[in-house]
Amino acid sequence: MNLRRRPLKRSDISVCIDLLAAHPEFTALYQGRRELLQSVFDKIVGSAGFLAFLFESTENQQSKPLGVGALAFLTDEFVKHAKQPPFFWIGPRVVSDLASGKSPILSDESVLRAGALDGLTLYCWPLGFCEQYIQLPEVQNFLMASFIEETRGYKLKEFLGQTTDPAGALVSLHSGALLLTPGGTYTDLPDDVAPPLLSPHLFVITREKALQRVGSWSSSLFVYNPPELGFSRGEQRLLGAALRGLDDDELVSDLQISLSAIKKTWRSIYSRVERAGLSILPSSPQPQRSGDRGKGKKHRLLNYVREHPEELRPIATKLLHLSHVPAQQHTPNAGESQLRHRVGRKRVV
Hints:
Layout: E1 2-7, H1 13-21, H2 26-30, H3 34-44, E2 50-59, E3 62-74, H4 76-82, H5 90-99, H6 108-116, E4 120-129, H7 131-134, H8 137-151, E5 156-161, H9 166-174, E6 178-180, E7 186-187, E8 203-206, H10 207-210, H11 217-221, H12 233-243, H13 248-255, H14 259-276, H15 290-307, H16 317-323, E9 338-340, E10 346-348
């Protein structure tokens, strides 16, 4: 089975809801409200606080959707409420709050600020997966690898998770998560966990506890280095798509911009990298064909961002710089409220 994932687009929302509606718990969790889900997902797909991915199998150039998973960055206020008993199912509550005009999911500006300051709280939101595939070891391994790859590079302070699947609960707990008890303490779960546990509950991984588990996958999520290149959001999108193996012609379709815009963005990326002086791009002491030199530059660059995922995460770069300046050296000025950030525009943050 050939597996792949790609960012969820608005045109995929109906497929996402079909997969979610096929889940045995759909009616109990979401009251079967397809139109409500359509409206809510249409608001948040593509935002910095909601990262959703469509998982597919590909055979003979045909693709088949297998499931949808999402990651959401939650507000501190919502997280504080979620960690107080009685616990509730976070996904349905997020949908209900968004429908009523409240947003438990961080805005784009808030993601930028939190990434530069104290960090983000990440919720792993299971949206639906074909039952006949989720039990396959190769699918489970692909899902875990995808989760780690998509979360690396963010400055995380806490992870929250829930599941309606007993096997999934054990996978989470054996990977470093702890169960939050109604008394406010954290505990491991015995191996003979029974399905009645899977009433509303909360699995938690904090930065402090994760970094104490050296070598676990959970500890790797909280290892963080600040970015050095400061790519714009458009540059980040192009690099992220190129990491999925898309060539320039495929990038035109995926990003829905012209080929000339693709080439202009590559030039902007190379110029930014060269100005940084990090010796990422290859030198060319000997004459080379233009195509070979271009492939070499792209190969080196993609290897670098693959190993440094923080370069592709949204962050307020000026605020990041100011957060590392000692207070006695920092003199506020009128322009500090306008921070140039990773999406390449100015916003008040």
